[in-house]
Write a structure and sequence with these properties.
Radius of gyration: 26 Å
Shape: globular
Oligomer: single chain
Mean pLDDT: 92
Largest sheet: 8 strands, mixed
Distance between the termini: 64 Å
């Protein structure tokens, strides 16, 4: 049975508004009641289905669904306002973040393995579980709205199943359920944390290895992974300033960046599109960790010329735009290379209007289109598992597998080797990943420094290049953390080519 068949209501209405069936007494059954369509919850369900069926990312599919819901409401003379959009967003992201926990609770309330429950039914159950256990929505409203959603998208028969399961879930609060479904910490620490904090066990293990330390640190990190990330703006030097961004919005809606001089943080509900500099491309939306990576590379000391910079993996263009602005302030040129043509177009859009010279080229960083030693500074922000951005893309934690990690290794090493060849002797390469996994960070750099194919290089201490940023570890590389820095878990190593 396909998804469309599952969504069709079962038992169409009979004549005169009844089910068309008679009860045991021979009298007509209860009048048929058409399911009530709740546009917010239907939108949230459609977003979860897109994530589950098409491997879509919520942050890409949700804006289009919100625009469509607003347009549909306008056609009918209704309003789909910001409160509706905020609730839909919370339902989608909250359900995705809590999926591991909610699945464990749902599994305790059904009489079959979860793999035998149709995915659309699981999505409705997870939405209901999040409303019951993760929001302040009253119990009766959470159950009734979820059952109505099930009637609309699954049919009356499955709605009864949803009703029965959610009533079982509503019998306890989240802490009580966690006591029941999570193994004790003393018996299995990683599995306990995986259930309580809704991360796959292998990710808990990998993050713990990278972070080190005891229970408190890893619990703080996993908790931060499940919090809604701030929206942070970046002012591109020479084109805008943090002060301009602040002045463009009500004072109560902005805060200065914690660490980056180019950053402005928006309060919840702040709208980047309301800022002229953002609409005009003089500023953008960029996590503060990404800003620090670009700033550190630009601040690394050089001997001799400082005229040509390379971003070897530039798509979609956020770091490239900041690097281009920093380069322009010194009269330097940025070359932004991207393998995929559609991503190269995004890079070109981000760099449009940069006051200094720049080029955007479609090129594979492992098969460079430039001569050896052509650049003074090179950034290689390599493809990775993305485990450092689970706050923004919570579905990635359920999509990635431990066996994915080794598959990135050859590409990461190849890109770093070619980046070292691209930089001149005395020039600096920044190796960055949005992952704290040790196999994608220090292990890659260590291997390349030992690799005979790579030019000789030495590590630089990144920490002095980020003044005021605390908890950067023992160096020389740095690892940023959501719970310590309020950023994505960005890693950066700086290497100076020595021969």
């Amino acid at each position: 049975m396909n998804d469309q068949q599952r969504r069709r209501p079962q038992g169409p209405p009979g004549k005169q508004g009844t089910t068309g069936k008679q009860g045991a007494s021979g009298k007509p059954g209860k009048p048929y009641r058409r399911p009530q369509r709740d546009p917010v919850r239907i939108l949230a369900f459609e977003a979860l289905r897109a994530v589950g069926e098409r491997d879509a990312y919520a942050n890409l599919v949700l804006p289009g669904l919100l625009r469509a819901a607003e347009a549909e409401a306008a056609k009918k003379g209704r309003q789909f306002d910001r409160r509706d959009a905020a609730l839909a967003t919370e339902l989608v992201y909250g359900t995705l973040r809590g999926q591991g926990t909610y699945d464990a609770v749902i599994a305790a309330c059904v009489d079959r393995p979860l793999r035998e429950v149709d995915p659309p039914v699981l999505d409705v159950l997870a939405l209901g579980a999040h409303q019951l256990l993760g929001t302040r929505i009253p119990t009766h409203a959470a159950v009734s709205s979820s059952v109505e959603l099930a009637r609309v998208v699954l049919g009356d028969g499955r709605a009864k199943f949803v009703n029965a399961v959610l009533r079982k879930i509503s019998a306890h609060d989240l802490d009580t359920w966690l006591d029941q479904v999570a193994p004790p910490y003393d018996e299995d620490p990683e599995d306990h944390l995986a259930v309580v904090h809704s991360h796959p066990r292998w990710i808990v293990s990998a993050l713990w290895d990278a972070l080190g330390g005891g229970r408190a640190g890893i619990e703080d990190l996993l908790t931060a992974d499940n919090e809604r990330p701030e929206v942070t703006l970046v002012a591109r030097p020479g084109r805008s300033s943090a002060q301009e961004l602040h002045d463009s919005l009500p004072p109560e809606s902005t805060e200065p960046g914690r660490w980056s001089p180019y950053a402005v943080r928006l309060a919840e509900g702040g709208d980047p599109s309301a800022v002229d500099a953002v609409r005009e491309g003089r500023a953008g939306v960029q996590d503060e960790g990404s800003q620090l990576v670009a700033a550190a590379l630009a601040a690394a000391p050089l001997d001799g010329r400082d005229e040509r910079w390379l971003d070897a993996c530039a798509g979609p263009g956020g770091k490239a735009a900041l690097l281009a602005a920093l380069a322009a302030g010194r009269g330097a040129e940025l070359v932004a290379a991207e393998k995929q043509p559609h991503r190269a177009r995004l890079v070109a859009r981000s760099l449009a209007g940069n006051p200094g010279p720049f080029q955007v080229v479609v090129a594979d960083g492992t098969r460079p289109a430039w001569p050896e030693g052509a650049f003074d500074r090179v950034l290689v922000d390599v493809p990775c598992t993305g485990l450092g951005a689970l706050r923004r893309r919570p579905e990635a934690r359920w999509r990635r597998r431990a066996e994915d990690v080794p598959g990135f290794g050859p590409l990461q090493r190849g890109l770093l080797i070619e980046a070292l060849r691209a930089v001149r002797v005395g020039g600096v390469v920044g190796y960055a990943t949005c992952s704290p996994h040790l196999a994608e960070t220090r292990a890659v750099v260590d291997d390349v420094l030992r690799d005979d194919r790579a030019p000789a290089a030495e590590r630089l201490d990144v920490r002095p290049l980020l003044p005021g940023v605390p908890a950067l570890g023992e160096g020389p590389d740095i690892q940023l953390w959501p719970h310590l820095h309020g950023t994505d878990a960005m890693y950066l190593a700086l290497l100076r080519r020595t021969s």
